[in-house]
Structure formats: structure tokens, C-alpha cells
Amino acid sequence: MILYKKYIFVTYLYKGYYYFRLDHRTLKWHNSDMFKYYGKFAPYMFLLPAGIVLLIFFFIPFFQTIGLSFLNYSHSIYNPDFAGIKNYIEILHNPVFYKVMWNTVLYLIVAVPILAISPLFLAVLINQKIKGITLYKILIYLPVIVSIVVAAIAFKWLYAQDGILNYFMQLFHLPKIGWLTDPKYAIYSVIIVTIWKGIGYYMMIYLASLMSVPKELYEACDIDGANFWQKHLTVTVPHLMPTIALVTTISSISAMKIFAEIYVMTKGGPLDSTKTIVYYIYEKAFENLDLGYASAMAVILLIIVMIFSLINIFCFERGRYKI
Amino acid sequence: MKLNFKNIPTHIILIAVSLLSIFPFIWLLSTSLKGAGENIFAYPPTIIPHDFTWENYSGVWQRVDLMRYFINSIIVAGATVILNLILSSLAAYPLARMEFKGKKITFFAILATIMIPFQAIMLPVYLITLKLHLVDAYGDTMGFIGLVMPFAVSAFGIFLMRQAFLAIPREMEEAAIVDGCNVFQVFWKVLLPMVKPSLAVLAIFTFIGSWGEFLWPSIVLTKESMFTLPVGVNNLQGMFSSNWRYIAAGSIISTIPIIIFFLAMQKYFISGENEGAVKG
User: Fold this and answer.
1) For residue A45, which of A182, A320, B252, B261 sits 20 to 30 Å off, Cα-Cα?
2) Residues of A in contact with B44 (CB under 8 A)
3) Do A278 and A160 belong together in one domain?
4) Closest residue in A to B164 (Cα–Cα)
5) ω into A238 cis (within 30 of 0)
6) Which DSSP category does B34 fall into?
7) Nearest CA of chain B to the CA of A321: how many Å?
8) Whole-prediction pTM
9) How far is Cα B230 from Cα B252, in angstroms, rounded to an integer?
10) Which of A26, A56, A86 is the last residue of a domain?
11) Quick check: B49 pLDDT over 70?
12) Where do the CATH 1.10.3720.10 domains begin and end in chain B?
């Protein structure tokens, strides 16, 4: 027999909420609000551990990056002097900087459109009830899981001068290409690796949002006799527009953070033709020990990534982060 | 699901893309199984080795301590996952449920970390890590702590856990409070068991991210005995300069654990429910 299992009333007021509790001994209703219940310090206690880590490894370094970018380390690593905006001016006069930015732009205009469109096409194909779908998904997702270092080594082997790709070139009576050694082609060879590794990931994002497209619309298309392309251009693409935009910004942001591919395959060469922003920062900071210059580059990267991230957060991922 | 002739073009495209996805690995695997008697640059190339041998695997296994790299990777990824689970869910609870002074600022501060790429702040992070003596020169334990701490909590994890807590009905907490739980008991005994699915998602994606991390370990690590798998595998290139059979064999060995992990956990990756859960 259940007799008054919970002696509790809850009233929801603005923001916090209150509950009224029946005291067993005195049989009186007590009211207390959740704010009091949690205590003044509880929220801060919960936030403290993560807060300390974020403070030490995010916020302090963030401001330190900005601070370092105004220092001049070029003559001594121990006694930097204040340089004002000298590092920034030097960067703007450095041809390597423009090369690096151009490589990033190449990434944005070559890799990003491919990464935004081809996974959508694949997701549409895979979002059908046909045999072997799980196997296809596993195989296409595999490059996402495997370490980028192994992927880069595998491609380096494909790209070898007497490697298998050049064999295929010969089959089609084309000249051998120095995939990673010719400054004209090296950046594209690296972009191919990034695309190859990203397709499965973006395909899964598209697949998730394809599930939300109302089935009735496709049925209506079938009744009207629309073909594959008409059906997807009139129903799927308009419905997935937010996701397409999301994938575009995510892949742009990750294109600006490319490092491992470059480090493993080309080390930025030949003739800086594959140097990316992050690789350049790494080289300046940890090989040339020019901390000020590297930090100024890092600030430029910060600004670019922040712009893209703000677009991303405010336009596409509002729901996830809303208060 | 009968084999339908209408679906044949779809199958052709999907088979082609699947082959392209795994071909680099197949070619690496094939190279790693070719013995010294076979030219690995032979035209036309052969996928099935003529001179089949396991010798490259035993060779690379003897010369390189891949097991050590593997154990290091397990320690780093394991510690990163555990810290992420604890710190993210602790921080997410007050953000989801409590009212306190400075909530908005805290919220935006965490949101801001999403916009700060690690690559842009890695230099000061390294300087701080050095200052705190969290590098392998001060002992292996310090080295491991240094490898883990910058990734011990992520905004992604905090927001994921916050969403999970928001989905729990408030009545659960009220019942626990009426039964006399204090705030930590409510969190530990009532709420955490209810967000297990989200904890699993967070654990798996943190694990994958940490397992493949290359930039940070290659900055902080100096001792070969501390190398994680990605750093160790990259190092194979220098050790065996042009011995592609050994490089290929080492790369394949290093990939086996993560492929097993992926196949065991595949429903989390390919079910399509966890949209956009990895990195960013």
C-alpha cells in the first residue's frame, strides 16, 4: 500500500524553483528554495577542477600568446626586449607569410567545397535500405579513426617516385609526377590526404541530419515522378542547408589547423610549397626559437579561426550552447 | 532487402568509394608482407605478395619497442578519458541546474575556449608545462601528466554533459533531496548513473582524439621510451630511412589496436545519432 510516498510540492518560479517539504515529526510544511539547498559554494566547488585546468592551459596561454607577440626574441631567447608591433610588420613583409596564407586559401577553395559536397552525395546514397550498408559505412569511416600519422605514411608510400600512383600515370601514358617533390603538385597531394581522411566524418554528420527530412516529401516526389537528382535537389539540399553550412565552417576551421600531414609527409617543402600556418608557427617557435615572431603568427591564426568559430556558433550551433 | 537491379549504380559507387578509403592501407599491408626477394617498386605492382613473409613484422618488433609505445598511448588516452569524464560532468552540473553569481561569464568563458585553437596557444602552453616541470626530463610520471593535462577537459565535453543533465527531469533530484541526499550525493548517486550514455559517447570520442594526437606529444616528448604510438610511428621513417617494408609493418601493427576498438564500438560511430561528436 502506498500512502503519500512523497510529501512534496514543487512550485516553479522565475529561474530557481522552490519546494515545500512535510517534516515527518512536526508535520509542518517547510519551504526552502533550491538555491539555499545547493548552498552558496556548491556551484563553485563543482566548477573549480575544470576551471583550474582551463585557466592554466587555456586562458593564461591565450593572453601570453598575445603578450609574447610584442616581444623580440630574435637576438636572445633569454632576454627578449619589447618590440611593439615589429613582429607583425616583419610578418607582413615576409614573402613566406604570403606563401603560407596562399596555401591556406588553396585549402579553403579546393578542400572545403569537396568536403562539403561529396560527403552529402555519399550520405544520400548510403541512407537507403540496401544490402551491405553497415559494411560500406565502416569502410568509409575507417580513415577517420586511423591515426593521421599512419595515413600520411600510407600516402607517402603511394606518392613515392616509383610508387603505385606513378604506375597508374604510366598506364594512361602520362608522365611521372613528383607528387610530394614537385612544388607545383605537392600542396594538392597533401590536400588529397586531408580530403580522404575527412569524407567519412562529414558523411556521418550529413547522415544524422538526413534522418530529420520528412519522408512524406520523398513520397510526394515519387508520386510526381521526379528522378534522383530532381528529388534530392528540391527536397534534400534545401532541408540540409544548415548542415551544409555547418560542415563548410567546420572543415574550414580544421583546414586552418593542418599540421600532422605536413610534418610527416613534406616538412613544409619543397620550397615552402606545402607550409601551412600551424607548421610555420611550429617551425618558428620550436626550431628557430623565435618566440615573438611565432606568437605574432599565432595571433593571426587566432583571429582567423575566431571569426570562423563565431560564425559557426552564432549561426549553426546555437541550440547546443544556449543558456 | 533483396538485391535489386535498380540499386546497382549505388552499389558500384559505394564499392568504389570504399575501395578508395581502404586502398592506402591495403597497399601498405601488401608492402609489409613482401620479402627481400621481391622488388617493392616492381612494375606492374602486385597486391598479393609473391615472396610472402612475416619477417618484416618480427624485424620491426625486435628493433622498435612498439609495445612500449602502445602502453604509453594507453596510459595517456586512459588518463585523458578519465579526467575528461570527471571534470566535464562536474563542471556541467552547475551550468545545467544551479543559479549562481557569474554563471553567464563562466558560460561564455567556456564557450570561448572552443574558439581558441590549441595550435595557436601551444607555445605558451609548452612554456607553462616546462615551468611546472611536467616534462619527461623530470621523470616519466611528470611526463605523462604533461601529456595529459592540456587535454584534461574540453568545452565540447562540458556542453555534451550539460545537455545530458538538462534532459533529466527535475523530479529525480527533488526525490533524492527529499530522501536526504546532499548535493554531492545527488550528483554522484542519482544524476551520474542517468547520464551513462553521454559519458560513453564522451569517453569514446575523447579516447579516439587522444589516441591520434600528434602535435603536442611531438613537442613535449624527448625520451624515446615515452613515445606514444603516433610519435613512434613517425619516428620509424627516420630509423629505417628507406626500408619501406619495415615502415609499413610498423605502421600496420600500430593501427591494429584502434581498428579493433573501432569495430567493437562501431555502433557509436556509425549509428548517425552522435552527429558531430569528434574534434572540431
Assistant:
1) A320
2) 167
3) yes
4) A320
5) no
6) B
7) 7
8) 0.84
9) 12
10) A86
11) yes
12) 61-270
**Rounded Cα–Cα distance for residues A223 and A197 (Å):** 39
Same domain for A108 and A79: no
Q: Which of A17-21, A311-315, B231-235 has the highest mean pLDDT?
A: B231-235
Please, which residues 46-85 of chain B have a Cβ atom closer than 8 Å to chain A? none
Q: Give the chain B residue nearest A309 (alpha carbons).
A: B115
A69, part of any domain: yes
Single-letter code of the amino acid located at A153: I
Using a CB–CB cutoff of 8 Å, tell me whether B146 touches chain A: no
pLDDT tens digits for A49-96? 999 999 999 999 999 999 988 988 877 777 788 878 888 998 899 999
**Three-state secondary structure call for residue A302:** helix
- Helix (H) or strand (E) holding B141, with range, is helix B140-148
Chain B residues closer than 8 Å to A246 by CB: 276
Q: Which candidate in A142, A158, A287 is best for mutational testing of the B interface (most B CBs within 10 A)? A: A142
What is the CA angle B144-B145-B149, rounded to 5?
A: 125
Q: Which residue has the cell 542547408?
A: A241
Q: What is the rounded CA–CA span in Å between residue B206 and residue A288?
A: 33
**A35 vs B99: CB contact, 8 Å cut-off?**
yes
pLDDT digits (tens, 9 = 90+) for A86-132: 889 988 999 999 999 999 999 999 999 999 999 999 998 888 878 88
Average pLDDT over residues B160-180: 83
Q: Which residues of B touch A17 (CB under 8 A)?
A: 170
Topology classification of domain B61-270:
MetI-like fold (1.10.3720)
Which residues from chain A sit within 8 angstroms of residue B233, using beta carbons? 147, 149-150, 153
Shared domain check, A274 and A176: yes
Contact between chains at B218 and A139 (C-beta distance less than 8 A): no
CA distance B250 to B256: 10
CB pairs under 8 A between A and B: 309
**Same domain (yes/no): A74, A55:** yes
Query: Taking CB atoms and an 8 Å limit, are B117 and A320 in contact across chains?
Result: no
DSSP bridge partners of A12: A17
Cβ-Cβ contacts under 8 Å, B116 against chain A: 58, 62, 302, 305-306
Pick from A80, A57, A276, A260: which is nearest to B126 by CA?
A: A57
Looking at the 3D structure of chain A, how many domains does it have?
A: 3
Report pLDDT for B276: 43
When mean pLDDT is compared across A57-66, A237-246, B224-233, the lowest value belongs to A237-246
Give the separation between CA A84 and CA A295, rounded to whole angstroms. Answer: 13
Output the pLDDT for position B4.
66
Closest partner residue to B254 (CB to CB) among A40, A68, A150 is A150
Q: How far is CA A111 from CA A98, A115, B199, in A?
A: 19, 6, 33
**H-type helices in chain A, by residue range?**
34-38, 42-54, 60-68, 86-92, 95-106, 112-126, 133-145, 148-158, 164-171, 186-210, 215-224, 228-231, 237-255, 260-265, 277-282, 291-315, 318-321
Cα separation, B187 vs B174, in Å, equals 12
Residues A320, B163: C-beta atoms closer than 8 Å: yes
Q: Are residues A105 and A192 in the same domain?
A: yes
